[in-house]
Batch of 4 targets.
Target 1
Amino acid sequence: MRKRVVLAKPFSLEDEKDSEHTPPNLIQRILSLFKNVRPGSDLTNFQLPPQMNLPRSQLQCYGEMVYSFSGHDLLGECSRRDQPIERLKSMVTWYISTLRPLIFGMAPYNPVIGETHHVSNRHINVLVEQISHHPPVSALHATHEKENIDVMLCQYFTPKFRGTYVEVEVKGKRVVKLLNQKETYEMNQPKLLMTFLPATGAHWVGKIMIKCPETGLEAELQLLADSFFSRFTGNNKRSIKGKIFESSSRKQLYEIFGNWDRTVTAKNLKTGELEVIYKASENTAKLKTPIVKNLQEVSESESAMVWSEVSEGIMRNDWEKARQGKRDLEEKQRESLRQRKSFGQSWIPKHFSVTRAGKDWDCVPLQPTVPRAPIIVPL
């Protein structure tokens, strides 16, 4: 019997208000999971109980960065701008919009190999595939039909336990191509910190670089780690600062500052003019749950179908159903791996060509554009 497609609402700024205070029993539960884990240990294959899972796969979270927004089409705006400096500034705005608040102590499912996620929102079509399980590597391809934009992401991460926090280093890079402008923008990704002491919290931190070789312009953004005092009080400021400059001369053109979950401003250093380039309340405050437009076209590998039993259990607080769903899925994956090994076969992704050099991964989509999806974000 075909499984149900269980779709959960993307986590938004409105939902965050309900998760500002961490219950003491949740902190104790989390710390108990790490009681036998040494500081510095790699947590890549660490499994959480269903009570600490969000009812969605990590693939869905990656896809939501691109297709889930409630305001303007910020990705399309990158190509609509006339001047190179304006396009880079728009690219900075779009990147900031992909940063989303996180819930401390809650995490999405670790995707299984071969799992996919395919969703469309107006002119944007997004396809994500889990191309490796050990180590976990995800590939994303998105295309903007109207503005002829191509987004490619090949992402893998290494979470490590540091005693009072977990540090997640996100490797791989994003590449956005404005094909009408013949411009390529390369960008890296920040780290994630899950802190236990002196206060609980989930924070994006680190340096982000956005470069365009064709225009000779760059942006450098810094997601600031909270001070000791703010961590102690639990006040997460989510500050961002940075600059836009010429690559060759290092001449600074704009100063960027603000809070990525609220408002970000750009200051023109030549004229002194201030411009609000991003308002989170207009873009990520009221996110909509995707819907199934054509059930018959939904792939059996779709995340919402693969994890349907587990998600249904979590959303109904039926933890035994969620645990059994997880066990069944894990056993199915182990059996599939045993069969491949017995025939001397390796996993071949369906939608991407993959190359690996040491610990570095690179992915190229097999198709030039992403087709319209049977799952859509309602207008």
Target 2
Amino acid sequence: MLSRPLFRIVPDNTRIRFMKGAVAGLIVSAILSLSSVILAFYPGLARGIDFQGGIVMEVRTPGEADLARLRTAASRLDLGDVGLQQFGAPDAVLIRLPVQGDEAGTQRAVAAVRAALEEASPGTRVLRVEAVGERVSSELFRGGLIALGISLLAMLLYIWFRFEWQFGLAAVITLVLDTTKAIGFLAITQIEFNLQTIAAILTIVGFSVNDKVVVFDRMRENLRKFKQMPLRDVVDLSINETLNRSIGTSATLFLSALPLALFGGDALAGFAWTMLFGIVLSTSSSIFISAPLVLFTGAKALRPTEAASAVQAPAA
């Protein structure tokens, strides 16, 4: 009784013909990725202080914060476009100020805001202050994009070394499409784009590659095991055989990240929600993007006899 799992998400004899929708999956994915790139520029990403620069102050008022009164007090200081928002609890407020020049200007701005808030709401306490200059923010933004590029290149080399080049090419194209969709998700939801979300995207890339390597490995085994089976059938068989593992791993990671998104607070919400979206995206892309790419790019190299017979058939 204990020799087999008591619960299977997908029955062992599942034979879903995924490759019947291969073309449709690639077209839909391309449209979504193109739309995500457009959304990244318009309306654009909600850049956090890491990439935009400026000053962030977290304050706590004695009672429930009166945002209108605090906003009026801060706006009178002539410090530029000042933004206030509730931050978690009713008495917690997050204040954003534009870059104030050098360090001395930043200190004067913080002191002025502190005094104005104390006057508007006596007893208000400043819990933390973060300041990033324009030069540092641009360097962080450039470094985050370089990190994404290096990770994609490293994945290409790893899969190319471990498998045939068709697998490496399919994986990297899929990762680029996954990354653009994740950026589109950030643009739609206006989740703050900062170093935490960059870390979430890099984590998604790693998880996505791991999931695709499992499917690719099964494809390679089945190509050797079933030498006469058409490549389309091999791809379908490999996906079905790894479906339990892919869904089970994704569900486990999803359930572990869900409490972080629901109860982790505003500081971790962006990272957690990006992770949740990426988990679902990575699992689906292994089936509907990377597998069809292997099917189309590897038709001649992975099944040369099948390709030759297809060419000779009309002549016969």
Target 3
Amino acid sequence: MGFVFRSLFLSLLFLFLHQAHADFNSTDGKLAGGCNIFRGKWVFDASYPLYDFSTCPFIEDEFNCGKYKRPDKMYLKYRWQPFLCNLPRFNGANFLEKWRGKKIMFVGDSLSLNMWQSLSCMIHSWVPKAKTTLIKREGISALVFLDYGMKLLLYRTPYLVDLESQKMGRVLKLDSIRNGDAWRGMDMLIFNSWHWWTHTGRSKPWDYMEEGGKLYKDMNRLIAYYKGLNTWARWINRNIDPSKTKVFFQGISPTHYEGKDWSEPSKSCSRETRPFSGLKYPASTPSSAVVVNKVLRTIKKPVYLLDITLLSQYRKDAHPTYYNLHKGLDCSHWCLPGLPDTWNELLYAALFG
């Protein structure tokens, strides 16, 4: 009976994802005139990067490819160009002025950390002499631009839903989000989650999943992700006042460990020095991105999807590879300066464009 139920469940999952792939069409990303800022191409721009790694004090060593002597530099010289419009040029002084006295919080995993540090550097490059203070405590970090009273915060939570230590072990609670108390009172929230949902073996930081008081040793990870995101969606509906808080979802950041994704099966991101330049990226939309899109459609409050997946899929050249503190191959995170700066340019366009 269990086998039959599991087979039926997986069949329904397949149908759900197949239909979702068919309907996948982000309705966000539109500027005046109907331009979708997430559809475009990468173009060479000699004025890039937007800052220098040696002058930004906020880059952690896992993203600092320049410090670890990455020899090629072309990956720094690409600008995202939407097909039907131009992105507004990022202006850190304008950002600080517009968000004076406000609190902006990134909520998520190390990809949120990647984007948070990028935005910190982008703003700092405009006001290098501005007084700042950086406070780091377990699970939360805050960069304060003192002259402007603006706080850039990072709340580390890889699943958004709660992960608790209990007598039987570590429990990932798919229907609990008490963490959310720390997110209240923000003027802007930028959420992200997916990277850790796929971990197995020793790198899996939970022993059980729980839903409705029932424990599971494991579960199809896309189903678990869907359940967890729905819990987050309910939190948004219950706790967000759109007149006081803008909400973004960062979107799914792709990995480049398998060259078959860009039709070069023998490769990984190692030694890649140019973006993918074809008309259509060979790998399909990740199922996790489809799940995000499906959940966002159910939320009654406005949540803006930073639909970074496709434009980031093109950037097989932009990972730290071996040029980082850990020395191991990293095709998940991104060099700084680098691709996350574009994510923040898109955030800037959504706010000011």
Target 4
Amino acid sequence: MFASPTETDIAPSGTLLGLLQRGRGDGWLHALAAPRAEAVAALERCVLHDPRRDWQLEHRSLYYARLYVELGVGLGAVAAHLFHPDDAVRPEEERTGLALSVLGHLTSYGDREALALLRRYAVTGANWRWALDELAVRDDDAGLRALGPEILLRFPHTEEGEAALTAAVRDSFEPRPWHVWAGDPNRPEQRARLGRALEHGDFDRWQRQLRPPGPQPGWSVAAVLDWAREGYEQSPRQWREAAAARCLAAVASPADRGTLLAAAEAGQPAVRAAALRHLAEREEPAVFPLIEAAARAPDEDVAGAAVTAFSRMGGEYALRQARRWAERDDELGSCAAAMLARRGGSRDAPRVLTALLRAVRSRGMDARELRPLVEGAGRLAVGGAVPVLRHIYRETASSQLRGDVARALAGTDPSFTTGFAVECLWDCEEATREVAARCATTVDKRVVERLRRLATDPAEQADVQLAVRGRLGDRATG
């Protein structure tokens, strides 16, 4: 089960479980020093109950897989989780995705049991597509070929079954297995069936390109705004703010300025949002009071659209306005502070620091607005931010945010190279390990040994290995 953004089961950062849930390098090191039973229990809890706040952005699978190898942990608990009766009633990817990804990495390390579990789950499991994607990049042709007939049993020889097969082939993340099965010389019926599915999938994509939804050439500004309004009034509601703004960019002329300003001031919510975004992207000076008024609107869609519109502005006028709005304690103020963090100069460092402290105090260690402020503190070299950056590093549950903090500390904290940079070599995030590989002091013997292991690890990312080899090369040449 994934951790909820508001009610989480993330353990305190000072515990072994809390460190492993966060994917911190210190968690890896503490697990090796802890009693093995305690370390195994904490590791299995993380893998079977995914602690990530955003599983599509944060990484944990390689981090946990490496620890499985280091501790010599068996896969009995993972197998029991995958093939539990809950798999039939809770087929969502969140329940099994992390465990399947860990098995994928273990397969890369030569674990035959992990490979067998992936093959078995691909045939019988509810989240079989994820298992098949893991196999697509790790199994050999012979192993995949043997799975073909069993996977195809999921699709009956009916009209609905053939349509489902075409959709599965067309939408597959890793298409290799389908092509292997379509080319199997020993199964002519299977070859013919998959050949049709591949052909129909290509035809479906071609048809989508021929008939794009939405406005067509020749539409007027009024027609585009009506299209945005119609989507908002549909059930279920379609929010067409971004698409309508793109269309307005193609059809609007200077003569339409008055119409667009009026729509941004008092139009129906979707119309107002589209007009605000269009005017903001054109850097219209008159849009600032309209954005400020919309940000106070009781309609959450309109208020959110106002903030989004301002965030897309990039001119000097917007930067000046951001300096006036950065003190606001609302979403528009957060957006203004983020703009200064990304594009401001040294004169804006105090405003960025104030906004960073305010966000931590009022919204906690995992607030959405922290990432641009942390990046800004590093970009502007805000030395006064070091204590709060260290605090965020220790406490945040987001491994992505922790990586941003590590990069900011690398440019602001003189002790980073001998402190956090060392543990970052074991971090779950590739980008964080890369920062550590470039910064961590090689005076520490653990650093040199870790760099050597990363340099030869077949599962390590190319950017990390490039940085690692650069450091080892520099050290060899003195």
